[in-house]
Design goal:
Elements lengths: L4 E4 L12 E6 L5 E7 L6 E6 L21 H4 L1 H6 L2 E6 L18 H17 L4 E6 L2 H11 L6 E7 L23 E6 L12 H7 L5 E6 L21 H13 L2
Parallel strand pairs: 4-5, 4-6, 6-7, 7-8, 8-9
Antiparallel strand pairs: 1-2, 2-3, 3-5
Length: 256
């Protein structure tokens, strides 16, 4: 028999009334996905968050991150909750808890199976509209799911932030079959993103390939950049404008 493990995380939160939970959801044979879940009492929508980089956030049973605490979507998780959204943070699956984690895995049928299982679990928790949201390398997971999942009835739409627009080693989002996407899709990108894979100059090529019934680009300005331009505290990670970006994503999600 397969079991769903739910662990209540007794940690302090910026949202004092929100108690995070760690969930282990069975996905494939002998494989599970560990999730960190935060939610208001009655969520208006659900955002399933896919971090960038190698995606192995290495969640512990008490809700701590072994990697990626500074990632844009991870460090803003409680801002999304304050907007009335249920947050589900996705780790690498149990069979990929070491290097290369999600690298070379984001565009596989196994990854799609894992995402399907996560979506199915969320459906058991709430009837609120469900959105897949990715940042940086996480956009490769979300875009691939948007183009390749054959069963998408439970998914309301998609959000791509700091999208991977060019890459010689893996399929960039712009190289995927984006014309297949029919659900609402939001693209959020900093105009000064300095990451070589994410030049704002390439955004028109992404938007022109999207044929979804509802699509929009939100171009971000301001903030500050520190260190590697591809890392979370550059413009690439919306450093200094987190609240603005989260509010604009949340407003768009709730209006579609």
């Amino acid at each position: 028999m397969r079991f769903l493990t739910i662990l209540i995380v007794m940690t302090l939160s910026l949202c004092a009334d929100i108690l995070p939970k760690v969930i282990d959801v069975p996905t494939r044979s002998n494989v599970s996905e560990r999730l960190l879940v935060l939610s208001p009492d009655v969520p208006k929508a659900v955002v399933v968050l896919f971090a960038g980089g190698h995606g192995g956030v290495q969640l512990t049973s008490d809700g701590k991150f072994g990697w990626g605490e500074g990632n844009f979507l991870i460090r803003t998780r409680e801002l999304f909750v304050k907007e009335g959204l249920m947050v589900v943070i996705v780790d690498a699956p149990s069979d990929r808890q070491s290097e290369p984690y999600l690298n070379s895995f984001r565009q596989t049928k196994e990854h799609l199976q894992d995402i399907n299982a996560i979506v199915a679990w969320v459906q058991t928790q709430t009837t609120a509209p469900l959105w897949l949201v990715g940042t940086s390398r996480g956009t490769q997971s979300v875009a691939y799911a948007a183009t390749e999942l054959t069963e998408q009835k439970a998914i309301h739409g998609f959000v791509l932030t700091s999208t991977i627009l060019s890459d010689a080693k893996s399929k960039a989002v712009t190289k995927m079959d984006l014309e297949k996407i029919t659900k609402p899709i939001l693209v959020v990108h900093h105009q000064n993103d300095g990451c070589s894979h994410c030049s704002f100059d390439l955004i028109p090529s992404l938007m022109s390939k999207l044929n979804a019934s509802s699509k929009e680009l939100i171009a971000i300005e301001g903030g500050q950049t520190k260190g590697d331009p591809c890392n979370a505290f550059g413009y690439h990670g919306f450093n200094g404008v987190e609240q603005e970006v989260v509010s604009k994503i949340s407003q768009w999600v709730l209006s579609h």
